[in-house]
């Protein structure tokens, strides 16, 4: 893990000067984002294999006001059996233990999820959003308490939202301190920091917030809550991935990346895989370093796999709902 | 459940997460070749032309070497047939209203849209370029070009009044080219009413397909004709009667030079290498490759270049996912290359090589960037707006992208300077390439074979004293006006000038090569200061000269009178000259503008920049008015000039020099008298003269055009045709303004 003391010193010293000088070139990022979507596609077996890989990156998510134990249970079952067994057999992939990377729920549903997964006999981690998700506009004290309670209930990954007002007013040190406290409250649990990039105002702010979240000890940085008007976009992702790469070059630590919000089609998920492959390389293409936050994506992937295996497009009732 | 289609490899790919092939089917391209029985001829007058007894050249897939078709090679008579077809087509095409041409171009755009897959697979198949590049870039832009020029055609009667289409345009394409480069040239030509004969290198089917698509549209079959043949046919095409202009087309983009500031060198190189490592190369028809291959010849070229660089101690880095067999070549980053001599060979970096070198300051970067004979395009990457603009304005190229690269749009003129040539494509500038002022006589295509380029103007006939000057007026000024003062000629000889009754009017200095060298040097020294002046300041100086001319009216008029001009007319000529100076001063203040283009957030600035040192050889007639009419626009646009005044009566120009001596900064305008042919020779062969205007004999014009090929400076030669300098259109028309400056497009994408 991190040598926190060192990073603290880094941050207070040279890094804060460096952070203040950072400039992201907006038109250049847009152009790169355009290119990357047009230049990399995979077809046939490659597509099928990539899609199955994408399944293993999914944080299967439900974050609704009407979540109850019954739909959480169904979600957990789907996480364990994401693709119909016969389809996996046809691809000779049934013994690969393909599950989603985690399930992601509200803090109040963590208990339900832990129980359901236990019943299904698997060790898929439960992730909980916390810290006043999605807006983060509650008192720091309750935000920290929320993390502790979710961890107590059995969540091993915590998706926290940052305080956007600190970014917009340029209080980088205060932001750093807050995330450090989140980190401490998580204990052994993994900290995934949601930057809510749709509300940060500029790509330069996205880069700075990414850097600070990583310095403060996040295990993952995540694009959005899925509740903002603009969610995971390619330009934002490029900036965050470049920040992850710069952080790796400077400290040797690999931080994970999680796009979330608006990733619905199998085709989208392939584009995200190739984006990470292009910008960070194959080392990042594993669940420890790459997740996709999504709820409906999985069923589209399953439909594509169905088509690949059978040569037919699936009817609605051919595939189990999640 | 239906039968399983899954292959065995999914398991391996699941672990390796490698990319697979994404083959783009080129069945339709092959089917099209089949319609011609795999034998391509020429496309002339809406029909395939397949003459018998012609040699043929195989058209090969540059990657596999597979024979795709055989292409017949044209002979002179085929070229003649194509030009004849284009001439016949010109008769109707050019007289139709612009709206009709607009409709035709729009229909062609629609046909391309409907058959775009055929176009992009054929192009990618035969050139080896990445299909993505052709499909998403070239084919889309080709349609935009047609639409843009259709709009230009539809407004031609109002927007381009006073101009007429040149006629039949001969278009020469280089051995490797993109069909898009052809579109950049044929669209404006067709839009304004010209017709085209394109001579394409052996084995290039895409232009033939385009010609077929255009020809099959119906009413105007002969407007676009494509002949395929070797470069030896270029002179044949150029000398066909009826060819009014020969346009050349640049080859595919080569390698790049990259200048990186020392303070960020390590960081930038690290990122560059990282990114290069992710580039994928492969068969052009694969939808997921970044680069294709350009055939064996290109491969040899780059291999030689890299070997040479290595032997000079350069560092060579190659990376990327590239097939190991020929003709694939990995993206290559060369650094530490010792500064090469700026000869033509070493200045061009072959594809796919990037040569990186460090610089210390922005000023140094500008010097290095401008220190090459090329002047096509450049991009500037900087987060500091002020610095980026400083470099953008300072770079001697046709296109500058700030924080972007390689963007193009039909409404933005694209061109260059120095050895990248001086023609323009796209935007309003591109249209004028195929227009001439109404009433200008057509070009005679036959060059004189008697002109000896080696001896033209070489020797100066000796002159002897012809007696003392007589007459009422004061003795005329004497000397060469160089660097702001009258100087004695290097030859220390003089030449008598006679008046209309044959009496001696005065002596003028006999200028020579050394004097021309001095004058060009003086003009160069004055150039940065003058070009840096605001148009307003330049206008003020021209107005001051106009006032001085009016004060000197009686002297000027009496000198004109001695040349046989009636007093009234002489006075009118002086007045008109003063008006010309004022008019250009005013005009130059309202130039340049901002363009808005699709696909770019932000403006594109269309700048009008001075050419540099402009050599002007004035006509014999109108010794004052022609001199001033040429001087005024040249100076107004920020050029400095070296002028050879009227040979018949240079004295009037020298009179004006007396005022310039007191008003102008030294070297701004230089006037060299002497033997016209000799001075013309010296100027045309001078490599550091950026443009030349020649108003004189057909022979002189031919020499100037030949000699100027040495540095590809833009030339405007009258070819022996007289001009009505007292008429507004010919003496002060927009043509002069167009010739007096060059366009630069400055792309400014925005975003926070």
From TrEMBL, chain A:
Reactions mediated catalytically: 2-deoxy-D-ribose 5-phosphate = D-glyceraldehyde 3-phosphate + acetaldehyde
Database matches in CDD domains: DeoC
Top EC category: lyase
Gene3D superfamilies in UniProt: Aldolase class I
SUPFAM superfamilies per record: Aldolase
InterPro entries: Aldolase_TIM, DeoC, DeoC/FbaB/LacD_aldolase
Keyword set includes Lyase: yes
Active-site residues, Swiss-Prot/TrEMBL: 222 (schiff-base intermediate with acetaldehyde), 258 (proton donor/acceptor)
GO CC aspect terms: cytoplasm; nucleoplasm
The keyword Lyase is assigned to this record: yes
Annotated localization: Cytoplasmic granule; Nucleus
Record key words, sorted: Cytoplasm, Lyase, Nucleus, Schiff base
GO MF entry, a single one: deoxyribose-phosphate aldolase activity
Record-listed E.C. numbers: 4.1.2.4
Annotated pathway: Carbohydrate degradation; 2-deoxy-D-ribose 1-phosphate degradation; D-glyceraldehyde 3-phosphate and acetaldehyde from 2-deoxy-alpha-D-ribose 1-phosphate: step 2/2
Signal peptide residue numbers: none
Gene Ontology terms: biological process: deoxyribonucleoside catabolic process; deoxyribonucleotide catabolic process; deoxyribose phosphate catabolic process
Short name of one Pfam family: DeoC
Family: Belongs to the DeoC/FbaB aldolase family. DeoC type 2 subfamily.
Subunit structure: Interacts with YBX1.
Function: Catalyzes a reversible aldol reaction between acetaldehyde and D-glyceraldehyde 3-phosphate to generate 2-deoxy-D-ribose 5-phosphate. Participates in stress granule (SG) assembly. May allow ATP production from extracellular deoxyinosine in conditions of energy deprivation.
Protein name, entry field: Deoxyribose-phosphate aldolase
Native species: Gorilla gorilla gorilla (Western lowland gorilla)
Gene (UniProt): DERA
Automatic annotation (TrEMBL), chain B:
Domain of life from the UniProt record: Eukaryota
Xref: InterPro entries: Ald_DH/histidinol_DH, Ald_DH_C, Ald_DH_N, Aldehyde_DH, Aldehyde_DH_dom
Aldehyde dehydrogenase domain boundaries: 48-252, 257-436, 500-718
GO molecular function: oxidoreductase activity, acting on the aldehyde or oxo group of donors, NAD or NADP as acceptor
Complex and partners: Interacts with SPG21.
Family (UniProt): Belongs to the aldehyde dehydrogenase family.
Protein name: Aldehyde dehydrogenase family 16 member A1
């Amino acid at each position: 893990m991190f040598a926190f003391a060192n990073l603290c010193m880094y941050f207070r010293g040279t890094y804060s000067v460096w952070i203040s000088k950072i400039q992201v070139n907006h038109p250049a990022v847009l152009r790169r984002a355009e290119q990357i979507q047009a230049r990399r596609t995979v077809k046939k077996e490659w597509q099928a294999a990539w899609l199955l890989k994408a399944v293993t990156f999914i944080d299967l998510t439900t974050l609704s006001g009407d979540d109850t134990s019954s739909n959480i249970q169904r979600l957990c079952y789907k996480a364990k059996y994401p693709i119909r067994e016969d389809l996996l057999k046809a691809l000779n992939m049934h013994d690969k233990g393909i599950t989603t990377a985690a399930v992601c729920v509200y803090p109040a549903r963590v208990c339900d999820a832990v129980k359901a997964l236990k019943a299904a006999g698997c060790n898929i981690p439960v992730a909980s959003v916390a810290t006043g998700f999605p807006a983060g506009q509650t008192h720091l004290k309750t935000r920290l308490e929320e993390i502790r309670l979710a961890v107590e209930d059995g969540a091993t990954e915590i998706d926290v939202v940052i305080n956007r007002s600190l970014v917009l007013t340029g209080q980088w040190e205060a932001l750093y301190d807050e995330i450090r406290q989140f980190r401490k409250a998580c204990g052994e649990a993994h900290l995934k920091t949601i930057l809510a990039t749709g509300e940060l105002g500029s790509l330069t702010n996205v880069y700075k917030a990414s850097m600070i979240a990583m310095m403060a000890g996040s295990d993952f940085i995540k694009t959005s809550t899925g509740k903002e008007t603009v969610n995971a976009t390619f330009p934002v992702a490029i900036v965050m991935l470049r920040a992850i790469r710069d952080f790796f070059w400077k400290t040797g630590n690999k931080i994970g990346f999680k796009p979330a919000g608006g990733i619905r089609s199998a085709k989208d998920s392939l584009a995200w895989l190739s984006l990470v492959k292009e910008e960070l390389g194959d080392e990042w293409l594993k669940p420890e370093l790459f997740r996709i936050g999504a709820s409906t994506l999985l069923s589209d992937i399953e439909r594509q796999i169905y088509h690949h295996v059978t040569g037919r497009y699936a009817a609605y009732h051919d595939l189990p709902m999640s | 459940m239906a039968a399983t289609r899954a292959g065995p490899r999914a398991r391996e790919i699941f672990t390796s997460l490698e990319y697979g092939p994404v083959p783009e089917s080129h069945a339709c391209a092959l089917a099209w070749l089949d319609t011609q029985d795999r034998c391509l001829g020429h496309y002339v007058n809406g029909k395939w032309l397949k003459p018998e007894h012609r040699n043929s050249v195989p058209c090969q897939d540059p990657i596999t070497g597979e024979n795709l078709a055989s292409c017949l090679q044209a002979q002179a008579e085929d070229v003649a047939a194509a030009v004849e077809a284009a001439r016949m087509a010109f008769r109707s095409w050019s007289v139709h209203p612009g709206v009709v041409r607009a409709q035709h171009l729009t229909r062609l755009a629609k046909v391309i849209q409907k058959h775009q897959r055929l176009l992009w697979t054929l192009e990618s198949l035969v050139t080896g370029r990445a299909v993505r590049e052709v499909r998403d870039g070239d084919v889309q832009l080709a349609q935009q070009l047609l639409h843009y020029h259709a709009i230009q055609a539809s407004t031609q009667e109002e927007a381009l009044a006073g101009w007429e289409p040149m006629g039949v345009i001969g278009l020469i394409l280089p051995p490797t080219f993109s069909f898009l480069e052809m579109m950049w040239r044929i669209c404006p030509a067709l839009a304004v009413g010209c017709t085209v004969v394109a001579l394409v290198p052996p084995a290039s089917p895409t232009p033939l397909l385009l010609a077929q698509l255009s020809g099959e549209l119906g009413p105007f079959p002969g407007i676009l004709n494509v002949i395929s043949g070797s470069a030896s046919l270029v002179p044949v095409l150029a000398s066909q009667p009826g060819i009014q202009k020969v346009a050349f087309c640049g080859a595919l983009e080569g390698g790049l030079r990259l200048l990186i500031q020392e303070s960020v060198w390590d960081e930038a190189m690290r990122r560059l290498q990282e990114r290069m490592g992710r580039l994928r190369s492969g068969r052009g028809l694969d939808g997921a490759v970044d680069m294709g291959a350009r055939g064996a010849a290109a491969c040899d070229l780059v291999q030689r270049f890299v070997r040479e660089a290595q032997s000079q101690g350069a560092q060579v880095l190659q990376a990327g996912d590239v097939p190991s067999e020929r003709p694939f070549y990995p993206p290559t980053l060369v650094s530490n290359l010792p500064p090469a001599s700026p000869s033509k060979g070493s200045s061009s970096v072959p594809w796919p090589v990037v040569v990186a070198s460090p610089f210390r300051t922005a000023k140094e970067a500008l010097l290095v960037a401008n220190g090459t004979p090329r002047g096509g395009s450049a991009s500037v990457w900087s987060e500091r707006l002020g610095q980026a603009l400083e470099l953008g304005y300072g770079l001697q190229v046709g296109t500058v992208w700030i924080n972007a690269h390689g963007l193009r749009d039909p409404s933005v003129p694209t061109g260059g300077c120095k050895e990248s040539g001086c023609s323009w494509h796209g935007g309003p500038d591109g249209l004028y390439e195929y227009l001439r002022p109404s009433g200008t006589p057509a070009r005679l295509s036959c060059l004189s074979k008697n002109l000896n380029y080696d001896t033209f103007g070489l020797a100066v006939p000796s002159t002897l004293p012809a007696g003392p000057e007589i007459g009422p007026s004061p003795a005329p000024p004497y000397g060469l006006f160089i660097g702001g003062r009258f100087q004695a000629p290097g030859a220390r000889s003089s030449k008598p000038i006679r008046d209309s009754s044959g009496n001696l009017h005065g002596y003028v200095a006999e200028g020579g090569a050394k004097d021309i060298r001095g004058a060009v040097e003086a003009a160069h020294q004055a150039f940065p200061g003058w070009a840096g002046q605001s148009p307003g300041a330049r206008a003020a100086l021209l107005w001051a000269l106009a006032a001085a001319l009016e004060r000197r009216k009686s002297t000027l008029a009496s000198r004109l009178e001695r040349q046989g001009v009636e007093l009234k007319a002489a006075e009118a000529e002086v007045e008109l000259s003063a008006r010309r100076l004022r008019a250009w001063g005013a005009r130059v203040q309202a130039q340049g503008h901002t363009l808005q283009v699709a696909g770019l957030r932000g403006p594109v600035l269309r700048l009008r920049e001075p050419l540099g040192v402009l050599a002007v050889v004035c006509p014999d007639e109108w010794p004052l008015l022609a001199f001033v009419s040429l001087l005024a626009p040249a100076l107004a646009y920020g050029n400095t000039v070296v002028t050879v005044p009227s040979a018949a009566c240079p004295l009037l120009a020298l009179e004006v020099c007396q005022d310039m001596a007191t008003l102008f900064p030294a070297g701004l305008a230089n006037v060299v008298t002497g033997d016209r042919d000799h001075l013309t020779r010296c100027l045309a062969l001078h490599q550091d003269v950026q443009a030349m205007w020649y108003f004189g004999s057909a022979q002189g014009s031919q020499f100037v055009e030949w000699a100027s090929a040495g540095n590809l400076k833009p030339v405007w030669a009258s070819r022996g045709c007289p001009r009505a300098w007292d008429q507004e259109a010919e003496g002060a028309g927009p043509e002069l303004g167009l010739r007096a400056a060059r366009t630069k497009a400055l792309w400014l994408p925005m975003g926070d």
